[in-house]
Description:
Blueprint lengths: L6 E4 L5 H12 L3 E6 L2 H10 L6 E5 L5 H14 L13 H29 L3 E5 L14 H21 L5 E5 L17 H13 L7 E3 L2 E2 L3
Parallel strand pairs: 1-2, 2-3, 4-5, 5-6
Antiparallel strand pairs: 6-7
Helix pairs in contact: 4-5
Amino acid sequence: MKRSKPVVLVTGGNRGIGFEACRALAEGGATVLLGARKLSDGESRARELTKAGSVVAVPLDVADSKSVAALKVRIEKEFDADEGKGVLSVPEEVIEKTLSTNLLGAWSLCRAFAPGMADKRRGRIVNISSGMGALSSMGADAPSYRVSKAALNALTLVLAAELKPAGVSVVSFCPGWVATDMGGKNAPRTPESAGKALAIAALDDERTGVFIRDGQIIPW
């Protein structure tokens, strides 16, 4: 997986040059925050750019310090807050949210459904991971995302060991760099091809306790 697409704020994005800049940026693969003093005006113009790409209207009055401060907080919380941050500087709320989504959410689902699979002595769990969570190639940037996926991989191994005697298999699956909202338009893999690879991993593969990409085992 590569870094997700850039987030670009355009002030006065609901009119003139600003609006056309929003269009060009969205077509180029960026997530565009269309700033407008009146949110309803911004939302109306953002709807006109739906086909261009990802455009989100945000309230912004550059002459109002409170408006600027509020938008700063929102951007830090909602848009790529993990990227570009060092492991010691990423906000705690970002760490908690990322772990909650990528690790604890998956763990909760496994707790709910795995016992039934074990009782029936059949079933397969495919955890959607990422190469960014591989310890063998761990690097800097996006620390909470990387750590959350590494932890998910650990959960895969623990579950695989526990559930193997009951006939339930568990794997981690890396879809690769996919042209989704997160991956951006420049990603080489289509959602369709990634979906097919996931279906094969779920239905036509009997291995357990492994990390898979394109049907091949990759290093943890």
